[in-house]
Amino acid sequence: MSKSKFDNIEVVLGDAMPMSRRTVTGILQNLGFRGVSYFKSVEELRQHFAETEVDLLVCDLDLPEGSSVELFHEIRHGSAGSDPFVPILAYTWEPRQELVEAVIKAGADMLLTMPMSVSKMGDGLNAVIERRRPFVVTTDYIGPDRCTGEEREEEEEEIPVIAVPNALRRKATGQPDEVPVEECLRRVQEQKVERHAYQVGYLTNIIREHFSGQTPDKAITAHIERLGFVAADLRQRIGDTRFRHQADLCQTIVGVAENLAANPGGVVDRDLQLLDHLATAIELAVNTDDDATLEAAGEISSAIRQAQG
After folding, report:
1. Where are the domains of the chain?
2. Fewer CB within 10 Å of terminal CB in the chain, N or C?
3. In what order do the strands lie in the sheet with 110-113?
4. What is d(CA 305, CA 235) in angstroms, rounded to the nearest whole number?
5. What is the pLDDT of residues 200-253, one digit of tens each?
């Protein structure tokens, strides 16, 4: 791996411990990185991402002032920084199972174990440059696709994989991304909207069956809160996609969820019917390109607006 490849790459290092920070910085410099900026807390990293474009994040999992894992999740979901696809290499002295699972769920590319070495870091970088996994998008996850071929075949619903931009690879090799950043962002947003629409329908069924007495659910409060969160995030994302005409319905779902949460004992059939219609309209609109089906979704939307006055 030629050192000259990394001369112009902006790498950010998150590490609060002076000794390990010096070690990892020295390894990165040995590999050819020159622009290494280091930060000692999650809050400092979050502020840097808000102000500066980053090509690579190398980060200790034991940072103060917040959770490194939560920061990874924020980056992937677009609430921290401008590039949700920035390569993330995490490292730790204690790779406990629950920590490993949390890093994976947050969408980091790789978890390395300390003590660090030039070969270990070099292998990790090479994997992200030459063999980076495509991303998948679900309601809760944006990050590398970790499913095997066999697991993919067993999925009830096929989830598309997306080749994402890779600033590290682009600058290290001089080769352009397979898909332009803007196009990839659009695909991710539309996939997120589609997954959220499915989740709204799923939660609506649980809530309806609970209040109708068919299937009482002890976690109903959590399901209602979850519905409100998903609908609010859907409302925020949908405006940047071809499904933007359904934005008002998403806000209506948020309102219905808030009413259910505030007065779970006063739920009436009208609330459940409204929620059903809203979920149906959104699912129809985001899961088809058929003109007749889109028209049906529009009619449902119009009927709901008229009913609300």
Report:
1. 3-179, 184-307
2. C
3. 35-39, 10-14, 56-60, 88-92, 110-113
4. 17
5. 999 999 998 888 877 777 889 999 999 999 999 998 888 878 777 777 778 888
